[in-house]
Design a protein that fits this description.
The complex is a heterodimer of chains A (about 130) and B (about 190). With about 130 residues, chain A is mostly helical. Helix content of chain A is about 65%, strand content about 0%. The mean pLDDT of chain B is about 95. The chains are: A mainly alpha (about 130), B mainly alpha (about 190).
């Protein structure tokens, strides 16, 4: 992975993690939020997405002839998105495990992640069936 | 038509270099990554957005349509580039170039096609978010002319490609509703939708 592609990958991954936190906090998806208090989620999102967009804004000033070829850009974007989603699901499941442990979700799909974490949801559905 | 396009380019690009803060701002917006990544982040947020399951489902349908539209638009741009190559304005005219000089075809604007494809697709489902994305697409398109790397017609062409592929994707999503419903149900079982 060359330097520019690596920077692009990191920026997209960080921004995606921040964007998920903002959306999760606003829509009450506690199971994928990193923090118990919404304000910290918003602050985290503001810092990560803001810093990333600022870096992208100045991209051509920092790299006057530096571009990433289209297909490579698409591949790194998709990879960064997958990494961001996996990171969010894993970290939120660890951080919020004890706080959401006793809950019993009434819904399926993403709606269930209002009350339990992703790992708890998978555990209940596929391993310890309830 | 071509003369009008060149004259309009010269007028817009002629504004470059006169007001440094505007040059700085539009050079940042013109780059290949900012508008595309911003639009993609909006799609990611929209996937999770909705106070009720029904609202979220509609948003997720919009995201799938936008992603399909983006992919098809790239296919059309590549197809167009293999039949028709238009020289960049800085190679033909006395332009103020504030950006690196791309070597691929000027028509249609690839990045404009992407952002317009996403914006029009979202507009079909969510008017407010669609309008925000259209503003972003227009600003990005204008900035590409301002910095001297596209003619106005390249941006209009990109927007037309984007609009057409959005409608095409919308039709495909309606036709493939059973398949989409199956895939969404699968994603719901994995708590991803």
């Amino acid at each position: 992975m060359d330097k520019l592609a690596a920077e692009y990958f990191y920026l997209v991954a960080i921004a995606a993690i921040g964007a998920i936190q903002a959306a999760a906090a606003y829509n009450g998806l506690n199971g994928i939020s990193f923090f118990r208090q919404k304000v910290f989620n918003y602050l985290f999102a503001l810092l990560t997405v803001g810093a990333t967009l600022a870096r992208l804004f100045t991209w051509n000033q920092r790299n006057p002839v530096g571009i990433i070829e289209g297909a490579q850009q698409f591949s790194f974007f998709m990879l960064a998105l997958v990494v961001a989603i996996a990171f969010t699901l894993a970290v939120s499941s660890l951080l919020r495990h004890s706080a959401l442990q006793g809950n019993h979700p009434q819904h399926n799909g993403l709606e269930a992640l209002r009350e339990i974490t992703f790992f708890q949801a998978l555990w209940r559905r596929y391993i310890h069936k309830q | 038509m071509i003369t009008f396009d060149q004259n309009l380019f010269l007028w817009i690009n002629g504004l470059a270099g006169k007001f440094p803060p505007a040059d700085w701002l539009l050079r940042g917006i013109a780059n290949d990554y900012l508008a595309i990544v911003s639009a993609s982040l909006v799609l990611l947020v929209l996937w999770l957005w909705g106070s009720q399951a029904g609202q979220r489902e509609k948003n997720q349908k919009a995201v799938v349509t936008a992603a399909l539209s983006l992919g098809i638009s790239q296919g059309f741009v590549n197809l167009s580039n293999s039949f028709f190559v238009r020289t960049r304005p800085f190679s033909e005219l006395d332009a103020n170039v504030l950006f690196y000089q791309p070597t691929d075809s000027s028509f249609p604007s690839n990045s404009a096609a992407i952002v317009f494809a996403v914006a029009f697709a979202i507009l079909l489902f969510n008017r407010r978010v669609g309008i925000y994305l259209l503003i972003l697409a227009c600003l990005h398109g204008f900035s590409r002319i301002y910095v001297g790397i596209h003619y106005p017609l390249d941006i209009v062409g990109g927007a037309a490609f984007g609009g057409f592929t959005a409608l095409l994707s919308y039709g495909m999503i309606r036709l493939g509703a059973p398949l989409l419903a199956y895939l969404m149900a699968l994603a719901r079982k994995l708590y991803l939708a």
